[in-house]
Design brief:
The relative contact order is 0.26. The N and C termini lie far apart (about 30 Å). The strands form 2 sheets. This protein has an 8-stranded mixed β-sheet. The chain has a 3-stranded antiparallel β-sheet with strand order 1-2-5, with no helix packed on it. It is mainly β. A hairpin with a 6-residue loop joins strand 1 and strand 2. It has a single domain, classed as Metal Binding Protein, Guanine Nucleotide Exchange Factor, Chain A (Beta Complex), CATH 2.170.150.70. Belongs to the Gfa family. It comes from Pelagimonas phthalicica. Keywords: Lyase, Metal-binding, Zinc. One of its GO terms (molecular function) is metal ion binding.
Length: about 120
């Protein structure tokens, strides 16, 4: 069972599905919303149970972002029309057993840091 929550604990989530596609996103939207970069993995939406009040922000025509309205924690990302949902790896209870697979949107990464690992990179 993979479990997690927001900073204040008002929103909790869990899944028995095996998380896939663990990645670090360097896009401008993730950097702005998280304050740096965003690490996530995904599961089928119907395999994720969310409790507590969650708010969604339609960040673009292509995706929405779910967050806790109390503490502001950015917890979820979902592409429009997709049946998979991504969740914040930083919000998980440990140990997670998850291993990062790749970096995405590296062409948009901030100029104030370097990527110093050997994970695959996708512009």
């Amino acid at each position: 069972m993979t479990k997690g929550s927001c900073l204040c604990g008002a929103v909790r989530f869990e899944t028995e599905a095996t998380p896939i596609k663990a990645s670090i996103c360097h896009c401008g939207q993730c950097r702005r919303q998280s304050g740096h970069l965003w690490a996530s993995a995904q599961v089928p939406q119907d395999a994720l149970t969310i409790s507590g009040e969650l708010r969604w922000y339609q960040a673009s025509p292509d995706a929405k972002r779910g967050f806790c309205p109390t503490c502001g924690s950015f917890l979820f990302w979902q592409g429009t029309g997709e049946d998979m949902i991504s969740f914040a790896l930083g919000a998980l209870d440990t140990p997670t057993g998850i291993t990062l697979e790749k970096h995405i949107f590296t062409a948009s990464k901030g100029d104030y840091y370097d990527i110093n690992d050997t994970l695959p990179r996708h512009d």
